[in-house]
Amino acid sequence: MSRIKAGVLGVGKMGEYHVGVLSELRDVDLIAIADKDQQRGQAISERYDVPFCKDFKDMLKQVDVAVVAVPTKLHYPIAKEVLNAGIHVLLEKPCSDNLDHARELFDLADRKNLILHIGHVERFNGAVQELHKLVDDPILVDCKRMGPFVERMKDDSVVLDTMIHDIDIILNLIDSKVVRVNVMGRSVFSDKDDVVSVQLAFENGCIANILASRASQNKERTLSITQKDSYVILDYTDQEIYVHRQSSSDYILTKDSLRYKQESLIERIFVHKDNPLKLEIQHFIDCVKNGTPRKVTVDNELYSLEIALGIMEQIQKQKRISH
C-alpha cells in the first residue's frame, strides 16, 4: 500500500480539522467528504478542493481509510457500516454511548483485520507524552477541564464531550483498577450534564479528582499530579509541564502581618510541540500501512468508556432519587 486513500464522514468543526490535516499529508490522498448538511459539505468541499458526497456510501468503494466525525448517537451504525465495507476507521471519541456497541465494533474490526482507532487526541499532546516519563507513583491527581458552553455539543453530557479525555489519560497513567467512584453533576445550559465533579479511588491507593464544566467563562485545561518527591503541573492548551521539587513552607510573622512563604525548585520540562491531531492521524495511517501497534490496547479503550458511562449512570440515578 503506497498512498492511502482517505475520506471524512461528517465535516462539522472536528471533521473540518481532520479534512485540513489530511489534505496536507504527503502520503495521503483525500478522496471525498460527506455530510448530511449539503450546504456545509459543499462549503468545505470548495474550501479544501475535495469532492463532496451527499451519501457517505458513495465513497466507500473509493477509500482505504475513513474518519468518522458524526454525532455520538451515529457512531455505532455508521462505523459498523464502514468497517463492514472493509475500510479502516478513525472514529472520533467516544467510541459509542453504549459499551456493548463499542465491544461489537472492536470485535468486528478484529474479525476483518481492520484498524479501529478512537480519536482521543489528547493522547498525542506533546505534554501528555512527556508526562509518562515523569510519573511513576502518583498519590493524588487533579484535573480541570473548564470552558464556556458550546451549542453544538448540547446533545452529549460533558462526561462524553470533554471529561472522557481526562478519564482516558488518568487510567493509562495509573496502572491500577478503579475501586470506587463518587460523582456529582448538574445541568445548566442543556438537558444534559454540563458540570460534573468526579472522585476516583484506585486499588493502589491513588485518588483522582476530575472536574469538567462547560458553564465556565474561563477556559482551563490542567492536570496536576502529587508524588512523594515531586508535584507535576501540566497545561494542555500551552503544552507545558512544570515540576516542583524540594518544596518547603513557613510562616513569616511581623508586627503588622502574618505571611505564608513557600519555596521550591521548579523545572520546566522541554516539550516537543506539534499539532496533536496531525500526530494522531499519522499514527493511525502508520498502523494501517505498517502494522504499527496501537498506542492504547482495546481493553483499555473499553475500560475508559466503561468508567465514563458508569459516571453518567450514577448521575442519572441521583436525579431519579431527587425527583
- Which term fits the overall shape? globular
Provide the CATH superfamily of the largest domain.
Answer: Dihydrodipicolinate Reductase, domain 2
What can be said about the biggest beta sheet?
8 strands, mixed
Judged by helices, strands and strand pairing, the structural class is alpha/beta
Topology of this structure?
Layout: E1 4-9, H1 13-22, E2 28-34, H2 38-48, E3 52-53, E4 65-68, H3 75-84, E5 88-92, H4 99-111, E6 116-119, H5 126-134, E7 140-146, H6 158-173, E8 178-186, E9 195-202, E10 207-213, E11 220-227, E12 230-235, E13 240-253, E14 258-269, H7 276-290, H8 298-322
Parallel strand pairs: 1-2, 1-4, 2-3, 4-5, 5-6, 7-10
Antiparallel strand pairs: 7-11, 8-9, 9-10, 11-12, 12-13, 13-14
Helix pairs in contact: 3-4, 4-8, 6-8
